[in-house]
Description:
Elements: H1 13-21, E1 31-32, H2 44-52, H3 67-81, E2 94-97, H4 100-111, E3 121-126, H5 131-138, E4 142-147, H6 163-168, E5 169-175, H7 187-200, E6 203-207, H8 222-225, E7 234-239, H9 240-243, E8 252-256, H10 258-271, H11 277-287, H12 291-311, E9 325-329, H13 333-344, E10 346-347, E11 349-350, E12 371-375, H14 380-393
Helix pairs in contact: 2-11, 3-11, 4-5, 4-10, 12-14, 13-14
The structure holds pyridoxal-5'-phosphate (PLP).
Pyridoxal-5'-phosphate binds near residues 104, 207, 241, 247 and 252.
Amino acid sequence: xxxxxxxxxxxxxxxxxxxxxxDIEPGKPEINMSIGEPKHPFPDFIAxxxxxxQSDYGRYPPTGGxxxxxxxxxxxxxRRYQLPAxxxxxxxxxxxxxxxxxGLFSVCLAIVPASSGPRPLVLIPNPFYQCYAAAAVAAGAxxxxxxxxxENGFLPDYPSLGEEILDRTAAVYxxxxxxxxxxxxxxxxxxxxxxLSKRHDFVILADECYAEIYLDAAPVGVLEAAAxxxxxRVLAFHSLSKRSNAPGLxxxxxxxxxxxxxxxxxxxxxxxxxxxxxVQAASAIAWSEExxxxxxxxxxxxxxxxxxxxxxxxxxxYRPEGGFYLWLNVxxxxxxxxxxxxxxxxxxxxxxxxxxxxxxxxxxxxPGAPFLRLALVNDFETTQEALDRICVWL
Length: 394
Ligand SMILES: Cc1ncc(COP(=O)(O)O)c(C=O)c1O
């Protein structure tokens, strides 16, 4: 069989973690901090809405979304980002997604142009959410990894890549608040990126699935930064997975440039799997409800306070502006993950598995290598127990 174009991708982060830990006996009962799966309570009102609408599982859902869902998303965006009236409209600027992952993946198929010359480029922060690389490759583009390290405030410095690369660029991924570092792009950062996208004619794919998980100020969004000129070349991705503790609901959306949304809708009409109608009904309610989101943030804040008390200034600890991860500089993330599992039964994710070597064949050029990612998704008591064990064994 011919090799597939995906052969260039390394094994996914979690199989790599299994290979690292499978032969090691955990020293204590397992606590899993490796996966960013929210574990705060799933809201009862979402469950109720699913049941109330269950007869609609008997109908094919519309790819473009129900009017109720599109309106709820429009209202939430306008409220959350103080968008001017009419900037985002239900029928022109929004598409529901089955969570952001499938959208962040398939969007490249719709927007990366076919090229008879050199392959188009897709820019990706390094470290990054692994789906971006597969999306670029699937669309016949070459991924270009831009380091997002402490030196550049954990955000990629795309303008520094130079004219030649930027001119070939079809799309740029940017995650804010970022996974794994929890960094928030400022309004100036977004504006610079938007200016760059106009100059070099590329699309901004803003992964904002952690936008509602923040410690102090609500993160600025790309649509907010685009408000004065409109969302041309901008697509923002949002999700209920983190906001509403509903990762299994599979519900999110993309919003932005009407022309890009039309192109993407066309592709989804052919090969998309629309959200079931009961999910769309429940999602409309979830986007309209804020109390559960505020409660959620309170729970995360309590755990970050706890982590700060326990870890202090070890491992370059910092309180991230958003998201729910600790990104600890432990020197060698892989070694530390194995040691924590063996000694403390705590499962964590080596930063190396979320990043690529900047210089091919040189593992020391991997910007994630010194780090360990810890997801603060468990309840307070479990998190406390895990942090106590970590402080003994790291
Ligand atoms: C950065 C980032 N983007 C996207 C996703 C996908 O989330 P979902 O598909 O549940 O919306 C995740 C999930 O952990 C993530 O960390």
